[in-house]
């Protein structure tokens, strides 16, 4: 190879980054990355990933929850093979105006690991799953893809409707899938689940570290609260006769922030966080007193009892604010997901792999939700984090460093080898 050819050679990390950026352009919106559950750009993502998987010799299917799944079997004779396969993957849906790496990087790197595994003599197959939904943007409920794979998809969810009035059942059918077959999405026997993901926070960067080994994922509650007052004329209704739903919601939102801040200063759970990230105002006109306001609540904590108590306190607060203002308040609980530890054995093999690849194995909890959170309830799971430059995520400025991506690939390769050696020892 000439020197100029060597210097222009694209590294596998650079190729993975370019692929994530290419997928980011498959979007519902021009110039921004927004890709909600089973919207039309998802078909483009599937076509792209299907081509990639087939080129790697994988057999590809799409299950009824819209998860794209590729199965690779090693060349070892079936008698040498272990039953069950290792599942790798992450999600391909995004928040509105997202970055290019949340979720997708984990799918792209899973395919890189399959490519690496082809020159190893692994005793197990690898299934790569591009989960269809993790963010909960379209229907307010997250982890739809991994719920189906973990056998935890509640059919009652199919009745939920998106902002355009399309039910989940219709969304699945419109994508050419059959919700009646959701049970078939459940994973059979699996050795484990491994997800690579960006940290989405500032910890690794602050400590100058490329990689983190996830010990567990914090629990989260999501609710929707609707304050209903009386819409009326902004010019003629005296202040003391108003039933302003937005003023009630605003009072409650500041209480949400104050409660989370109090926790942050206490020793009970300084890691508790609470967010009101979504609001819908009716009729939403400058000269009309707001009659109805719907807001979201997302509250997370490592400690389930602390999370549950904080949620109850805030919902009571919403009811009492509404009562004092003579309006009504309706609460819809959308999700309770307890905190989940990662599997000790797999996590210890992953820590070894990270160290063997020349990096400290910084163990850390995840504040963000991940597919591993749902998978871990059925299948032993482990997660590897990559540094998020600037701690930025859920934002177009989200990025990764090429060296960190290379480090993650190396650690992933060594992890697969260690899982293989560990299982061989166990079965001999
Ligand atoms: C997903 O990214 C979440 O943590 O909400
Ligand atoms: Mn996300
Ligand atoms: Mn994610």
How would you describe what is shown here?
The protein is of the alpha+beta class. It has two domains: 3-217 and 339-427, 3-Layer(aba) Sandwich (Aminopeptidase), CATH 3.40.630; 219-337, 2-Layer Sandwich (Alpha-Beta Plaits). Helices cover 36% and strands 22% of the residues. It has helices at residues 3-8, 12-24, 40-55, 104-117, 144-149, 168-174, 203-206, 245-265, 304-324, 344-356, 371-375, 402-427, and strands at residues 59-62, 68-72, 85-91, 125-131, 190-198, 211-217, 219-228, 232-233, 273-275, 279-282, 288-289, 292-301, 328-337, 340-341, 362-366, 381-386. Strands 1, 2, 3, 4, 5, 6, 14, 15 and 16 form a nine-stranded mixed β-sheet that branches. Strands 7, 9, 10, 12 and 13 form a five-stranded antiparallel β-sheet that branches. Helix 4 links the parallel strand 3 and strand 4. Helix 2 packs antiparallel against helix 4 (104-117), helix 4 packs across helix 12 (402-427) and helix 8 (245-265) runs antiparallel to helix 9. The two termini are 45 Å apart. Residues 1-6 have low confidence and may be disordered. The structure holds glyoxylic acid and manganese (II) ion (MN) (2 copies). One manganese (II) ion (MN) binds at residues 95, 102, 135, 394. The site of glyoxylic acid (GLV) has 3 residues, from loops.
List keywords for this structure.
428 residues; alpha+beta; Aminopeptidase; Alpha-Beta Plaits; nine-stranded mixed beta sheet; 36% helix; disordered N terminus; binds glyoxylic acid; binds manganese (II) ion
């Amino acid at each position: 190879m000439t020197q100029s050819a060597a210097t222009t050679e694209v590294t596998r990390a650079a190729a993975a980054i370019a692929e994530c950026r290419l997928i980011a352009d498959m979007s519902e919106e021009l110039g921004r990355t927004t890709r909600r559950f089973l919207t039309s750009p998802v078909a483009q993502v599937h076509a792209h990933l299907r081509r990639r998987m087939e080129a790697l010799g994988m057999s590809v299917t799409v299950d009824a929850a819209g998860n794209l799944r590729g199965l690779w079997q090693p060349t070892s004779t079936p008698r040498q093979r272990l039953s069950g396969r290792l599942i790798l993957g992450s999600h391909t849906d995004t928040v509105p105006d997202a970055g290019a790496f949340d979720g997708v990087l984990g799918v792209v790197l899973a395919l890189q690991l399959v490519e690496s595994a082809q020159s190893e003599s692994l005793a197990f197959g690898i299934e790569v799953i591009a989960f269809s939904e993790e963010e909960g943007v379209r229907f307010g409920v997250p982890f739809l893809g991994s719920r189906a794979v973990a056998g935890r998809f509640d059919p009652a969810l199919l009745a939920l409707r998106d902002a355009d009035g399309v039910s989940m059942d219709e969304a699945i059918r419109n994508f050419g899938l059959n919700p009646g077959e959701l049970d078939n999405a459940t994973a059979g026997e699996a050795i484990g689940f491994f997800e690579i993901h960006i940290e989405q926070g500032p910890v690794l960067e602050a400590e100058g570290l490329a990689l983190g080994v996830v010990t567990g994922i914090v629990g989260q509650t999501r609710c929707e609260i609707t304050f209903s007052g009386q819409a009326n004329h902004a010019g003629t209704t005296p202040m003391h006769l108003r039933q302003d739903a937005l003023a009630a919601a605003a009072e409650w939102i500041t209480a949400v922030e104050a409660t989370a801040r109090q926790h942050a200063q206490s020793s009970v759970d300084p890691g508790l966080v609470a967010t009101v990230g979504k609001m819908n105002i009716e009729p939403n006109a400058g000269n009309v007193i707001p009659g109805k306001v719907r807001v979201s609540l997302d509250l997370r904590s490592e400690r389930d009892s602390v999370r549950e108590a904080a949620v109850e306190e805030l919902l009571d607060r919403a009811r009492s604010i509404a009562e004092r203002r003579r309006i009504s308040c309706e609460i819809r609980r959308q999700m309770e997901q307890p905190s989940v530890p990662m599997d000790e054995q797999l996590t210890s093999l992953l820590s070894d792999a990270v160290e063997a690849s020349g990096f400290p194995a910084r163990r850390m909890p995840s504040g963000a939700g991940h597919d591993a959170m749902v998978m871990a309830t059925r299948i032993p799971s482990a997660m590897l984090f990559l540094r998020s430059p600037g701690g930025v995520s859920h934002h177009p400025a989200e990025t990764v460093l090429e060296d960190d991506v290379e480090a993650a690939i190396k650690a992933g390769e060594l992890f697969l080898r260690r899982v293989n050696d560990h299982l061989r020892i166990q079965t001999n």
